[in-house]
Amino acid sequence: KSALGLNYLYQNQVFDFSTTYTNAAAIGQIVGHTVTPRWRLRKEMKTFRAEAEFGATRQFLKAPLDSYWQLDPRLTLGCHSGARSEISLSYQWSWLDYDSREQTDAQGLSMTNTALSLQGQLVELAWTQTWDEKRRWRTTTRGGVEINQDNGPGFYDYRNYRVVQELRFRDTKWDVRLRARLSHYDYPTQPVSADDLSPRRRTLFAVTFQAERMLSKHLKAFGSYAWENSISNLSFDEYRASTLLGGLAATF
Fold it and tell me: For 19-62, how does the pLDDT look when each residue is reduced to its tens digit (9 = 90+)?
């Protein structure tokens, strides 16, 4: 099976972009446009499946954030069992290249006449279990490690360890999900501040409830609530936030 898609997103919201920006500016307004073409190829082989996905992103951002290009191919191998479960292993490589953003030294200061790019790798193991014969109830457990490296002194280098647990109910009308995520970031080079040279660390806990209701063959309503709690040895990184989202989606 093969699929080709194109996604467009407009953003005007408060957003946490501290992962790939300096610890002097972590949370603020983001205004921009995103265009993402994506191609996926999937092959079923009895109890096994293989899936390759290639995505490209062009992000146009309003200053002071910088626009960028991104590539993120992904390969997934899965194994089904007779107990309505699947175990899968995936690997994703990503490359992000900024238009004009400069590299940063170990103290967080811009380095003139340089160009910043980031390279990341993600390995993730997932277990999906369907609990009833009608396949309405399903749980997914995922755990992974992400390593990010910049092309400079390593100010934006980090390791991210994550665990995600999701419970999903789905029938002909409803699609309801409850998801909990625990994520921890270690920055080996980036210090907390000029006065505190200890490595920056951050732990993020998030819970999301999402519901979709089919209104017709091509139209559905959706809503979601998300709660986040960020704990860090950098006070600017710490926050609690709630997000409420709702709308309509049309498929053709």
Answer: 777 655 566 788 899 999 999 999 998 889 999 999 999 999 88
Separation between Cα atoms, residue 138 and residue 242, nearest integer Å: 26
For the segment 52-89, what is each residue's pLDDT rounded down to a tens digit?
A: 999 999 999 888 888 999 999 999 999 987 778 999 99
- pTM for the predicted model, two decimal places: 0.83
202 touches 238 (CB < 8 A) = no
